[in-house]
Automatic annotation (TrEMBL):
Domain of life, per lineage: Bacteria
Annotated protein name in UniProt: Glycosyl transferase
Length: 342
């Protein structure tokens, strides 16, 4: 600590700007749970606070958003200039950065300036939080594994609109529709097999007009496919998941998935890519909750998972006891303090 008092709360600047209705519930729950602790004081992000405010640690989830989450070229330029000033402040004050490592690689579309800024942020990183021990961050710093906590408490707050009836034929995809998430393969698997007796539902915003057009063409051509191409609030999302027999996540590659945990938190089986992370999760949550496919999703994968769910629904709720928020917040608080006292 700057004043030498190690017993006072660690003041943490979080990379989220504000907690809005559209903010990722994982971030909201983490901030709220940390804020209830006596040993942590949470400050939400603004460039004014980041450059001139008082805090002990900067905690960041997706650092590229510091520079890229602006709608116009002029605003993105301003963000890059402000991020440059912020990183200078971190270096001059020797403020440690704690990074939660969500993705294995940086996103596409970054400029050279963006990469240089991210490199500078990584040089200030003193502790890494990973969501699974299969994540291997490329930084030689202390690392804590803090598993992604569940969403049960979050959705317990929501008053259900009506008692939903599950459609035994329905496979639901929800979330942002991006190329790496494999929605095109899901649509192709269905449209190329008109004999398959199923109902596919897509809920979420496409990342570009081309993807939106592909979904609309499939919906118009095939009565088994329906879509709501807009942001779904929590009440709507809970109702959509409750009406589905299966959530399908046809990702081309998956490492950490909040959508997977969200579906399991709402007691809905999931079909997801076969990898080491998901195999371990399948063992953790219990038999019948997580179904896996290898390679590119096929119609056989979809039909197999739907038939399995119909023939033998799980006897108990998914076991998410290792993913409680108080324990997660305690581990985060320990990581923040460790970054100050290596």
């Amino acid at each position: 600590m700057r004043d030498g008092r190690r017993d006072r709360p660690v003041r943490v600047l979080e990379s989220v700007r504000e907690l809005r209705a559209t903010t990722n519930p994982y971030i909201v729950q983490l901030v709220e749970t940390l804020d209830r602790r006596d040993d942590t004081e949470v400050v939400l992000f603004s460039f004014a606070r980041a450059i001139a405010g008082r805090y002990d640690v900067f905690h960041v989830h997706w650092p590229e958003l510091l520079m890229t989450s602006a709608g116009t070229p002029l605003r993105r330029l301003a963000r890059r200039l402000l991020t440059t000033a912020f990183l200078a402040r971190l270096r001059l004050t020797r403020t440690p950065v704690v990074r939660t490592w969500h993705n294995l690689a940086r996103p596409d579309g970054l400029t050279r300036w963006d990469h240089r800024l991210l490199d500078a942020l990584e040089r200030r990183t003193r502790h890494v939080i990973r969501l699974t021990d299969q994540t291997a961050p490329p930084l030689d710093v202390p690392t804590s594994t803090i598993v992604h906590a569940h969403y049960r408490d979050w959705f317990d707050r929501i008053e259900p609109t009506a008692e939903a009836t599950r459609n035994p034929r329905r496979a639901l995809y929800f979330g942002l529709i991006k190329p790496y998430k494999g929605v095109e393969q899901l649509l192709a698997a269905v449209t190329e097999h008109p004999e398959a007796d199923l109902d596919v539902r897509l809920v979420g915003s496409p990342s570009d007009p081309t993807l939106a057009d592909q979904v609309r063409v499939a919906v118009a051509a095939d009565p088994r496919i329906s879509a709501d191409l807009s942001y779904a609030d929590d009440t709507t999302l809970a109702a959509e998941i409750a009406a589905a027999a299966l959530v399908v996540l046809p990702y081309k590659a998956m490492h950490n998935s909040g959508a997977l945990l969200l579906a399991l938190s709402l007691d809905t089986p999931v079909l997801a890519p076969d990898n080491e992370v998901n195999r371990r999760l399948a063992e953790e949550v219990g038999e019948g909750w997580l179904h896996l496919f290898d390679g590119t999703l096929t119609i056989d994968d979809l039909e197999r998972a739907l038939k399995s769910v119909a023939a033998g629904p799980p006897a108990a709720r998914p076991d998410l006891s290792a993913r409680e928020w108080p324990e997660s917040a305690a581990l985060h608080a320990a990581a923040f303090r460790a970054s100050l006292y290596p």
